[in-house]
Amino acid sequence: MSEIQNVMVFGAGISGKGAAAELAEQGKTVFLYDDTPKVLEPELADALAANGGGFVSGNVEEVLAKVQQVVLSPAVPLALPVLQKAAADGIEVIAEIELAWRNFPGHMIAITGTNGKTTTTTLVGEMMKKLPVKTAVGGNIGFALSREVKGLDKNSWVTAEVSSYQLEGIRQFSPDVAAVLNLTPDHMERHKTMDEYARCKRNVFVNQTAKQVTILNYDDPEVRTWGKYCRGKICYFSRKAVLPEGVYMKDGSFFVKWNNKVSEICHKSELQIFGAHNEENVLAAIACGYFAGVTAENMRQTLLDFKGVEHRIEYVTTIHGVPYYNDSKATNTDSVIKALEAFPGGHIILLAGGHDKMTPLEPMMSLIREKTDLLILLGEAKERFYEAAVTAGVQNIVKVDTFKAAVDTAYAVAKPPQIVLLSPACSSFDMFHDMGERGRYFKKLVHELEK
Question: Residue 2 pLDDT more than 60?
């Protein structure tokens, strides 16, 4: 790529800024573009200016006329007409994770799926710390992959959470280990069809070689069939079937069986996280750790120590005998289904709604009817959610105008053995900067009620 000197980084979020900083350090002339004017951190602004670049906003065609390459932040769709024209004109358009992969001499695990990515990636990242080499975690988990790979050597391992948005723009990206956790409807406002969404997800392994490994969820009826697309070694994981080879559960314990050798890792009762969805995450993490060379004993110790990730069925506190859980990370319907299933006793007061991703609601509402004592709806999605809930036969529904009103309403009615669960099935952008801000606000409100 030595002929590329002038680069436009499209999108000035975490990934965009990380990519711009990395390219500037390589001596490239970098134009960091965003539709919205922004003030950059002085260190980044100076680094870009030193090579004749800088932050630009407004006339994107003018910037494209100066560059040989465009690096996309995840939020920027590859389908934008201006980017399609740029590609047709011979400008290389790539994702930020592609840039990171090209600059990285070591080994990579890439984890994707509709749900469970962050928990699995975090867990694998903790397992990798047991190896006697440098390791890092990055990608969709909140750290620009371009920066996380910086300074790592050929023996190092990076664990990357990668989303369909990031996988849209890969070209040669080929991780040593690629894992697909599951596939359910999500991001239809961007991908339009499930076929296109699935194609983007398969990009995680599309360039792999025979020496590399693809980890697939045997229990997911769609993902199970993807072996036909794989060039690498395929390892399935399952919590429902005892596999002839792969990673599976038997009598509540997690096992690896590979090359006729069987290793028992631990029993689910020893974990600090719970729910069928987390059992799947653990299985996938074990598979990733195994092929990266983490020992069974080190995987076991990591699993026993792991407390889960913030905003994913995160226990907040108990008030008057009622536990409160923050599941702000549940930004789609399948995540909410998994959260509801994690509480077999039901009696859930559910807070849902936000920025509507226009995914089908019927399966989720059917389970809400069974599991909830009260459904509290808020945000842009509340009217569509309300209609779907009524159609599904959900009995007790309340619509509120503010997030605080939702929490206050739950607090006013909640009594043991009920639980209060924030699990929105929506993104947060109608009220918050991101799902993390939403989850932290929920916890703040709950702790104020506790006082």
Answer: no
Q: pLDDT tens digit string along 63-88?
A: 999 999 999 998 899 889 999 999 99
In the chain, where does the domain assigned CATH 3.40.1190.10 lie? 98-305
- Cα separation, 53 vs 35, whole angstroms: 17
User: Residue 188: pLDDT band by 50, 70, 90 thresholds?
Assistant: low
User: Is residue 367 predicted with pLDDT exceeding 50?
Assistant: yes
pLDDT score recorded for residue 310: 92
The reply to whether omega before 175 is within 30° of 0 (cis) is no
State the fold for domain 314-450: Protein-Tyrosine Phosphatase; Chain A (3.90.190)
Q: In CATH, what is the architecture of 6-90?
A: 3-Layer(aba) Sandwich (3.40)
pLDDT of 186 > 80? The answer is: no
Cα–Cα distance measured from residue 314 to residue 169, given in angstroms and rounded to the nearest whole number: 33
Which CA distances in Å does 421 have to 43, 351, 352?
42, 6, 9
Q: For domain 98-305, give its CATH number from 3.40.605.10, 3.40.50.150, 1.10.940.10, 3.40.1190.10.
A: 3.40.1190.10
